[in-house]
Design a protein that fits this description.
Blueprint: E1 2-3, E2 12-13, H1 15-21, E3 44-45, E4 54-56, H2 65-81, E5 84-88, H3 94-108, H4 112-116, E6 127-129, E7 144-151, H5 168-193, H6 200-204, E8 211-219, E9 231-234, E10 240-244, E11 252-256, E12 259-262, E13 270-274, H7 276-281, E14 291-293, E15 301-309, E16 315-316, E17 334-335, H8 336-344, H9 352-355
Parallel strand pairs: 3-12, 4-5
Antiparallel strand pairs: 1-2, 5-13, 6-7, 7-8, 8-15, 9-14, 10-13, 10-15, 11-12, 11-14, 16-17
Helix pairs in contact: 2-5, 3-5
């Protein structure tokens, strides 16, 4: 089943449909160059028990100042060492997390003709999609997705949200409200750790007037997982990402040096990572980190990536408090809209997107 929207450079093929009919091979369009495959000569997947830190966030919300300081210290270490961490006891109900994930799983198992009603275009990416970037002939990722806006309210359009499964809009609405609250709490912790006022990052993002959106990733079973990726290596362009992973199947990998570490999700944890906009505001004190997704031949995966972003038209630049003669500003001002347009035409490209913004020195 393909969608021939004139806005895409080629007809869109749903990976889920390919998965159902591919027995022992995959189309060439999905075969990565040897150096970009899950196992390559230049990087390798770690077989160690290494994992991104798991942080109990409950004490940050409590009244014990020493316990709060300890949480902040763990968050700071995770941001410096990994750019990624997991949070538990974060204030979002476990039942809501499970309900949101499983409701989206149900959506992806609806008949194709129902899903096709929500087919997206590269103008906004909102809706049901199967590719990122508009380069004709590009090598594609083994995944379908659904993208929608929560904030600002002017972009929130229920007509672009699925109407099935029943009650899904209520579930997605509540989930969005709770994860936005969590994003505000996490930004406070990051601001404090950068030596800034606790509301600094929130204000730099636009105060209450932030951007928030969700991409639900569906990774169908793949008969040749060693040849492809569910999502190519990239850093997240926005401010901060809170990922609700599949609770049954691992797949997210985080780059550390020449190693890819497969994240082992803690139960009812969110996986949090620094985005390119916080790298810019922190003047690279905190860095966004490359990550990718591998697929497997036995099980599908569903994950919910919630992006907590700056308001689209505010110039984002290094915080003046973090710019000194010894640490000059690394980045010119650029709005998130300008940055998003810059990367959307190119698709996922490791860390090259944000690194190419650095001011000439």
């Amino acid at each position: 089943m393909s969608n021939t929207s004139p806005d895409w450079p080629e007809p869109i093929v749903r990976v889920q449909s390919l998965s159902e009919r591919c027995i022992d091979s995959i189309p060439d369009r999905y075969i990565k160059p040897p150096t970009h495959r899950p196992v390559s000569a230049s990087t390798f997947t770690s077989t160690s028990d290494a994992n991104i830190p798991v942080i109990d966030f409950g004490d940050f919300l409590g009244t014990d100042p020493d316990a709060r300081r300890l949480v902040l210290q763990k968050v700071a270490e995770a941001c410096n060492d990994w750019g990624f961490f997991q949070v538990v006891n974060h204030g979002v109900r476990p039942e809501l997390m499970d309900k949101a994930r499983e409701t989206w799983r149900e959506f992806f198992h609806l008949p194709m003709e129902l899903k096709q009603k929500y087919a997206n275009s590269p103008k906004t990416y909102e809706g049901y999609g199967s590719r990122l970037g508009v380069e004709k002939g590009a090598i594609l990722d083994w995944s379908d997705y659904y993208f929608l806006h929560y904030l600002p309210l002017s972009l929130k359009d229920y007509n672009k949200w699925p109407s099935l499964p029943l009650s899904c809009r209520e579930v997605f609405d509540e989930y969005g409200r709770e994860v936005v609250k969590l994003g505000g709490r996490l930004l406070k912790a990051l601001s404090i750790n950068l030596g800034l006022e606790e509301d600094f990052l929130q204000n730099a993002f636009g105060g209450e007037d932030i951007g928030a959106c969700l991409r639900v990733n569906f990774y169908p079973k793949c008969p040749r997982p060693e040849l492809t990726l569910g999502l190519s290596s990239h850093s997240d362009p926005g401010g901060m990402t809170m990922l609700l992973p599949d609770d049954q199947v691992a797949g997210l990998q985080v780059r550390r040096g020449d190693e890819w570490i497969t994240v082992k999700p803690a139960r009812h944890a969110f996986i949090v990572n620094i985005g390119d906009q916080i790298q810019v505001i922190s003047n690279a004190k905190y860095k966004s980190v490359e990550h990718r997704v591998i697929v497997n031949s036995d099980k599908e995966r569903v994950s919910l990536a919630f992006f907590y972003n700056p308001k689209s038209d505010i110039p984002i630049q290094p915080a003046k408090e973090l710019v000194t003669p010894d640490t000059p500003s690394l980045y010119p001002p650029m709005t998130f809209d300008e940055y998003r347009l810059f990367i959307r035409t190119r698709g996922p490209r490791g860390k090259s997107q944000v690194d190419s913004l650095k001011s000439p020195r």
